[in-house]
Design a protein that fits this description.
By secondary structure, the protein is an alpha+beta fold. It has one domain: Beta Barrel (Porin). Helices cover about 15% and strands about 55% of the residues. Strands 1-2-3-5-6-8-9-11 form an 8-stranded antiparallel β-barrel. The longest helix has 18 residues. Pfam families: DUF3575 (PF12099). This is DUF3575 domain-containing protein.
């Protein structure tokens, strides 16, 4: 009877030990340096598969406006936003079946959205050569949809300490920048204002000019006292990071 009891206890401890390594809550370390902490939850969904979801929030952070300070002034511009990254992990090599430890290959998707809103002040010179002081509200948003494939290693030390290093991730990202100027002043030729903003920026930044033609500005949508612009572009996406957490 004692032997049977000991065997049952041993089996139970083995099951508990295995279950203790099927889930993990982790904190990404890289985000802490850019005031964008991220939390990750990983759950085994098969013998050598798991699903992980990462959520990140960037707390409002003041950004520099030095590049255009000679022509424009900004009222305390801050950037904030969030990111969501789901992924499936396939563990291989010597990874133990039923756990989330070892080398893994993980296809992932990601969605990021960051933005800033501020009041900008500048003196606009109209076609009649009159100086018109303006203080429009400026909104600038960047949205990213992407995906790729990454490789990494997940260690579990003892029974509960998790160390996850995804050291190489490569994919593609589709970005879209949205800009909106909201003017309170009526009777403005907003397309001429847009040309003025472009020319002043390019004068201040000869090595990083905006490639926006007059024809592009003529195509800008005007809605009442608002100027709106949208610019899509694609780029190679990279992903890497280190996280620590609790496995259970």
């Amino acid at each position: 009877m004692k032997k049977i009891t000991l065997i049952m206890i041993g089996c139970l401890m083995g099951i508990i030990s295995m279950e203790a390594q099927q889930s993990a809550v982790k904190l990404g370390l890289g985000g802490l340096f850019v005031t964008a902490p991220n939390l990750r939850f990983e759950q085994a969904v098969g013998d050598r598969m798991s699903f992980q979801i990462t959520g990140s929030y960037k707390f409002p952070t003041t950004i520099s406006s030095d590049i255009v300070e000679d022509a424009f002034s900004f009222t305390d511009p801050k950037i904030s936003g969030f990111a969501i990254i789901p992924e499936f992990r396939f563990y291989f090599g010597k990874a133990k079946a039923g756990t989330i430890e070892g080398f893994y290959l993980a296809p992932y998707l990601k969605y990021h959205k960051y933005g800033t809103k501020t009041v900008t002040s500048f003196n606009y010179i109209n076609p009649q050569n009159e100086v018109v002081p303006l203080s429009p509200e400026l909104s600038l948003d960047l949205a990213t949809i992407g995906g790729g494939l990454q490789i990494g290693y997940h260690w579990i030390f003892g029974e509960h300490f998790s160390l996850d290093w995804h050291f190489l991730g490569l994919g593609g990202d589709a970005h879209r920048i949205k800009l909106k100027y909201d003017f309170e002043k009526d009777g403005l030729d907003l397309k001429d204002v847009a040309r003025y903003i472009r020319d002043e920026y390019n004068t201040e930044n000869p090595d990083n000019q905006l490639e926006i033609s007059d024809a592009d500005i003529d195509d800008l949508p005007i809605n009442g006292n608002q100027i709106k612009a949208s610019l899509p572009f694609a780029f190679i996406g990279f992903r890497a990071g280190l996280s620590i957490g609790y496995a259970f």
